[in-house]
Specification:
Radius of gyration: 22 Å
Protein name: Bcr/CflA family efflux transporter
Strand content: under 5%
Helix content: over 70%
Organism: Cellvibrio japonicus (strain Ueda107) (Pseudomonas fluorescens subsp. cellulosa)
CATH class of the largest domain: Mainly Alpha
GO cellular component, one term: plasma membrane
GO molecular function, one term: xenobiotic transmembrane transporter activity
Distance between the termini: 12 Å
GO biological process, one term: xenobiotic detoxification by transmembrane export across the plasma membrane
Number of domains: 2
Order of helices and strands: HHHHHHHHHHHHHHHH
């Protein structure tokens, strides 16, 4: 009898770690990106004052460059994780995080800082890409869904807490010690993995890396109209969101003079995003991904148009901005997971490579867009508002095109042939 991956998910050697401990560890692995970005946000102003820069906005590059490293890292880590096993990629990622953090800690100029952050970005791709694969290796079906739901409950809290961790470091030391925080974080999860997590992908199930397979997967992604539409949408959505992330410290601490309360406001908005993700998980089966995405993008466009009109009349205060941002974050929570799932929907036969390519393509696109929006920051909310409005309108147009194409394809599907009698042919084994 042929063995399947689901058979391995109940193998006794894969159960050294308890379910609760496993959930916490996976949540920490998935959170490495959020920690790497959000904990540094409160320090951008200090870095701009301490490191020679041509313009204070250049400190934002420390956020964007991490996304570039992560995008490239995804292309490598995804296929190699399937070829060599999960733990090797985890260890490689942790080593790169340690190296990048050490370079940043010792940096005396912006170029060295950017090099360290790029290496960090390469590193965070390892834990980020491997985490979901590990869950898929160990669990299937309803149990996998239950584990992922519990992981997400922890994961949602991290963006709300991470800026406060960075702020706590700044209260007792310099911004350089935030990179020590990253080193400690990486060491903790590295030791934890070494002591408690067994390799979840047996040798028999590994897929040797093939350049041709990667190229074929790339061609498959870029030639699929539906996948490319939703991938472009991901890049546009996250590009506008990254523009906000890049500018957030300046908006809160310089424009609105919130001081240390920046981390509180940022955390509240992150919780709104997390709550929206939970709402999406509850209603997506009832209303469908397309419906929720379209309504959420309309919410982004309309709220941005109204907020832009408000700025033409008066200068919005902090509370007006928080209301606008809360609407945006709630809408984004409905968009991100769904648009990624819709991009992957036609790619089931090349899921691993497709996920890496889609993630890398949308990350590079969003990094470019977000960097431009961030560099346009001029002490007002106009750049990010225009970014959300214009990119939201573009994304909405692409969503309509993708939806129309899917409807057309559905109409062109030929009627199914009558099923053959089970007496005439043997049943197929389900994989």
């Amino acid at each position: 009898m042929e063995t399947t991956m689901s058979d391995y998910s109940t193998h006794p050697t894969a159960s050294r770690i308890s379910a609760r401990e496993f959930i916490v560890l996976i949540a920490l692995l998935m959170s490495v990106v959020a920690i790497s970005i959000d904990a540094l946000l409160p320090a951008l102003g200090f870095i701009a004052n301490d490191i020679p820069l041509a313009h204070p906005n250049q400190a934002q590059y420390l956020i964007s460059i991490l996304f570039l490293g992560m995008a490239i890292g995804q292309l490598v880590c995804g296929p190699l994780s399937d070829a060599t096993g999960r733990k090797k990629i985890l260890y490689a990622g942790i080593v790169l995080i340690l190296l990048g953090s050490l370079i940043c800690f010792m940096a005396q100029d912006i170029n060295t800082l950017l090099l360290g952050r790029f290496i960090q970005g390469l590193g965070v791709a390892g834990p980020y890409v491997s985490a979901i694969s590990i869950v898929r290796d160990k669990y299937t079906g309803n149990e996998m869904a239950r584990i992922m739901s519990l992981v997400m409950l922890i994961f949602i809290l991290v963006p709300a807490i991470a800026p406060s961790l960075g702020q706590a470091v700044l209260l007792v030391s310099s911004w350089r010690y935030i990179f020590v925080l990253y080193i400690v974080y990486a060491l903790i999860i590295g030791v934890w993995i070494f002591l408690r997590l067994e390799e979840t992908l047996p040798r028999d199930y590994r897929i040797p890396f093939s350049t041709r397979g990667f190229v074929d997967g790339f061609k498959e992604v870029i030639s699929n109209y539906t996948t490319m539409c939703y991938t472009l949408c991901m890049g546009l959505f996250f590009g506008s969101f990254l523009g906000y992330l890049n500018s957030s410290q300046q908006i809160f601490q310089e424009l609105f003079n919130t001081g240390q309360l920046f981390t509180l406001y940022f955390g509240i908005l992150a919780l709104v995003f997390g709550a929206s993700s939970l709402v999406n998980a509850r209603f997506v089966q009832k209303w469908g991904m397309d419906y929720l995405c379209n309504r959420a993008v309309l919410g982004i466009v309309l709220s941005s148009a109204l907020f832009l009109a408000l700025q033409l009349v008066i200068e919005p205060n902090l509370w007006a901005f928080l209301v606008y941002a809360a609407v945006l974050f709630f809408c984004f929570g409905l968009v991100f997971g769904n648009v990624n799932a819709m991009a992957m929907e036609p790619m089931g036969h090349v899921a691993g490579i497709a996920a890496a390519i889609i993630g890398a393509f949308s990350s590079i696109m969003s990094m470019t867009i977000g960097t431009v929006i961030g560099q346009l920051y001029n002490g007002t909310l106009m750049p990010i508002t225009c970014g959300f409005l214009i990119l939201g309108m573009m994304a909405y147009g692409i969503l309509l095109l993708a939806g129309g194409y899917k409807d057309k394809q559905a109409l062109n599907v030929p009627p199914a042939e009558p099923a053959a009698s089970t007496d005439d042919k043997p049943a197929l084994d389900q994989q």
